[in-house]
């Protein structure tokens, strides 16, 4: 039996996930594998590097730095989250990513991206945490029209949430029998069609398959939520979600708001910690 951790995206709703995983790491909870989508990838990778507190620390430190996130960066580089700063300067120098611990940790860490040419999901196991793996994580979090496509292998890659926002079925398909799922929306949430689709159709006109995937994303997402509820009732999944909407945007420049959502995640993680331990045979 393999135990997995699945982390949804949601931009700065990912501060909730950061709070939950810090509590799990502090308690010594381990998984055979983890998979992250978008913010779940770029924040969740710290589980494998065992860097408790790193996500909230660097986000609060640099959320007001235009090199980190700004519309100036978007206009200048094509990335609202600055590629050079976020994926080079920050992990290499300012708040170093522990590549050695990451590589030595036997836990697999997968990310989900979307192939911009086909609109299909691409799943990648980031084994080393090196510069190439960081680019796979970046690709998973590259929001359509707000980020450039990331060229890796033979792919042009975009935000993984477009094709597979909550990759429960993928993890089950590769042998993860029991999974802890961290969602960033509360119980009862129903995704609606993207209100920016008219603009996205114009900006992404060269990528019709990606547009089609964006048009139907809400249907796939809601169907996956229904499947998650079914598996949760059967005891195959343990789901951790906020009790109420987090009310935080994709870009948040106020450190206190990041801290607020992070603390909500910590409280939920602490509340569910005993259940998580019981869910894992190794803790019996």
What does this structure look like?
Helix 1 runs parallel beside helix 2, helix 1 packs across helix 11 and helix 2 (39-48) packs antiparallel against helix 7. The chain has helices at 14-26, 39-48, 54-62, 71-77, 83-94, 99-104, 131-140, 168-173, 197-203, 208-234, 255-279, and strands at 2-7, 33-37, 108-115, 121-125, 150-152, 155-159, 176-182, 237-240. It is globular, with a radius of gyration of 18 Å. With 284 residues, the protein is α/β, with parallel strands linked by helices. The longest helix is centred in the C-terminal third of the chain and has 27 residues, at 208-234. The two termini are 14 Å apart. Helices cover 46% and strands 15% of the residues.
Question: TL;DR of this structure?
Answer:
The protein is α/β, with parallel strands linked by helices. The protein has eleven helices and eight strands.
List the helices and strands and how they pair.
Blueprint: E1 2-7, H1 14-26, E2 33-37, H2 39-48, H3 54-62, H4 71-77, H5 83-94, H6 99-104, E3 108-115, E4 121-125, H7 131-140, E5 150-152, E6 155-159, H8 168-173, E7 176-182, H9 197-203, H10 208-234, E8 237-240, H11 255-279
Parallel strand pairs: 1-2, 1-7, 2-3, 7-8
Antiparallel strand pairs: 3-4, 3-6, 5-6
**Poorly predicted runs:** none
Structural class label:
alpha/beta
Q: Estimate the global geometry from the Cα principal axes.
A: globular
Radius of gyration over alpha carbons? 18 Å
**H and E order:** EHEHHHHHEEHEEHEHHEH
Q: What's the tally of helices? A: 11
Average pLDDT reading? 96
